[in-house]
Amino acid sequence: MAKNKMKWTIVLVVLAMLATGQSEAQDKWQRVINLAGKWRFSIGDKQVWADRYYNDSQWEMVFVSSPWEEQGFNGYDGYAWYRTSFDGKELQGKDNAYALFLGYIDDVDEAYLNGHKIGASGAFPPDYRTAYDAFRNYNIPKEYLDFGGKNVIAVKVYDAGIEGGIVSGDVGIYVNRADQGVTINLRGVWDFRLAENGREWNTPIDDAKINSLMTAPGGWVDIMVPSLWERQGFADYDGGAWYRRKFTIPKDMAGEDLVLLMGKIDDSDRTYLNGKLVGSTHEEYDKFRMYQLSANQFKPGEVNVLLVYVDDPHGDGGIYEGPVGFMKQSEFTRYIRWRK
Q1: Distances (CA, A) of 60 to 25, 68, 93, 165, 185
Q2: Are 291 and 222 in contact (CB under 8 A)?
Q3: Which of 126, 214, 316, 323 sits most deeply, having the most CB atoms within 10 A of its CB?
Q4: What is the CATH code of the structural domain delimited by 2-11+25-177?
Q5: Beta partners for 63?
Q6: How far is C-alpha 5 from the geometric centre of its chain's CA atoms?
Q7: Which residues of the chain have pLDDT under 50?
Q8: Fold of the domain spanning 184-339
Q9: Are 142 and 152 in contact (CB under 8 A)?
Q10: How far is CA 181 from CA 26, 294, 301, 326, in A?
């Protein structure tokens, strides 16, 4: 009971933060489709349940968002899946940046749209890591959306104890004005690992280490960007950490100068693109990062690697506010004037 009370106290505190100081931030959202209500639900875990065309007509119905214990599954701890759908014709055009808000999920989840993984928080067993206090905000790549028909959302959840499931929050499809004009949107799942030596801000980082981090297959976990790492299973961690994201820059952007938007980072960062340092900000947790790139610093039509070292000596840490992504330099001045 004490743990339960503590968990809900944290949720209430986070909601209060969202309703006050954070509501004044540039990273504002507007709901365009309300997904609260009855969803299909099944105990167990089969990966085929993520498939867009899977027949879930025989599944139970539960209300989202509310703990499954309050809907006839009292005492159940383990895996379960949720499924629902929405009509793409209800979206506000193809030029907007869309995200799936799933509120708070106890404890771990993966989210899929039309069979494509778009987000995850925490870690499933055997390397279990709870993320019950992380607000789920998952970027939806436009290429995964069907703007003319049915779109299917599937969510895999693991609960280790007490309440389980999609427990609270305003669930839906949202748009963000601040993301308009971002050509390559990098919100979503990144690779993440804690620094080997705790804090590495004052330690020389040579090319060999950067190249190793760019290619290392192991030692990484999924993390959502933007979001504080404390809300994703790394509570009370103060120190250094590495973020990594691989992505493709379209061929038609060859010859363009770009601007890398890294949002807000608590506290300091060193940002590398394809192994080269492209920007750094020291101890300015509230500064919006904007790093200029010339056309010869990226590889159009190929996989590029973004590597970010974040140093947090105390308090909250991580890449915590967007937008995060690339835009053309030719459109950047207009964007900044409009954004302000």
Answers
A1: 39, 11, 33, 14, 36
A2: no
A3: 323
A4: 2.60.120.260
A5: 38
A6: 27
A7: 1-26
A8: Jelly Rolls (2.60.120)
A9: no
A10: 14, 19, 20, 9
**pLDDT at residue 84, rounded to an integer:** 98
- Sequence ranges of the chain with CATH classification 2.60.120.260: 2-11+25-177, 184-339
Nearest-Å Rg of the Cα atoms of the chain is 20
pLDDT for 201: 84
Structure tokens at 331: 């459109």
Secondary structure in 3-state letters for the chain: CHHHHHHHHHHHHHHHHHHCHHHHCCCCCEEEEECCEEEEEEECCCHHHHCCCCCCCCCEEEEECCCHHHHCCCCCCEEEEEEEEEEHHHCCCCCCCEEEEEEEEECEEEEEECCEEEEEECECCCCCECCCCCEEEEEECHHHCCCCCEEEEEEEEEECCCCCEEEECCCEEEECHHHCCCCEECCEEEEEEECCCCCCCCCCCCHHHHHHHHHCCCCCEEEEECCCHHHHCCCCCCEEEEEEEEEEECHHHCCCCEEEEEEEEECEEEEEECCEEEEEECCCCCCEEEEEECHHHCCECCEEEEEEEEEECCCCCEEEEEEEEEEEHHHHHHHHHHHC
Burial 259-276 (b: 16+ CB within 10 A, else e): bbbbbbbbbbbbbbbbee
Structure tokens at 310: 């974040």
pTM of the model: 0.79
